[in-house]
UniProtKB/TrEMBL annotation:
GO function terms (MF aspect): ATP binding; ATP hydrolysis activity
GO cellular component: plasma membrane
SUPFAM superfamilies: P-loop containing nucleoside triphosphate hydrolases
Domain ABC transporter: 6-247
The protein, known as: ABC transporter ATP-binding protein
Keywords, sorted A to Z: ATP-binding, Cell membrane, Membrane, Nucleotide-binding, Transport
A Pfam family: BCA_ABC_TP_C
Amino acid sequence: MSDVILETRNLTKEFKGFTAVNDVNLQVQRGHIHALIGPNGAGKTTCFNLLTKFLVPTSGHILFNGKDITRARPAQIARMGIIRSFQISAVFPHLTVLGNVRIGLQRNLGTSFHFWRSERSLNSLNERAMALLAEVDLAGFADTVTVDLPYGRKRALEIATTMAMEPELMLLDEPTQGMGHEDVHRVTELIKKVSAGRTILMVEHNMNVVSGICDRISVLQRGAMLAEGSYAEVSKNPQVMEAYMGTSASELEGAH
């Protein structure tokens, strides 16, 4: 039997007569990098918001490690090991790079909200924080104030702070959006590297990124599941071609 870490059953979200996510059945295998793709307005971000409990489904169920988490709150989901990295860089701009990762690590000390704790009590986290920064090629930026980091490096820092929370399942929302070619390549390699021993579900627009690192791809269109499979399978699917290109498969063939 396959090892499914995350599953949705008939997941549906309606907003005042508009169905944003329509009867979606998704299965994410443990240890996979799984991409959620689709044209603009396909329901990808709404789907992510349902999985991380920022939205409550209209109907359907969400299961994590076989346990129904449909009614769980965002903080409960995070404690279970589902950690989301946001589309907009979610780091503290005026802390150092090292300081940002230490905040992620504090969760495991149970002192997340003890901001009055002395700096000394956090020094024990430095070794682990530096190891995480090394993993994302940011060790040389440890003392840099985050606001001064280049954009692509900020996304790498965001991945490091997500990893600090020891996620079993990492949700990455548009990790390469707004990046130049060099940064896209660096962050793609980084995702591949940090996926070892983890499961990653990502929303991503860049097909080069998806084709290069994803084990499985789910395609959404108008809130519904259009296709699912490997990149090779999905990219040859006539419905997917039509959704992305606005061209039917026969027209594409006729263009050759």
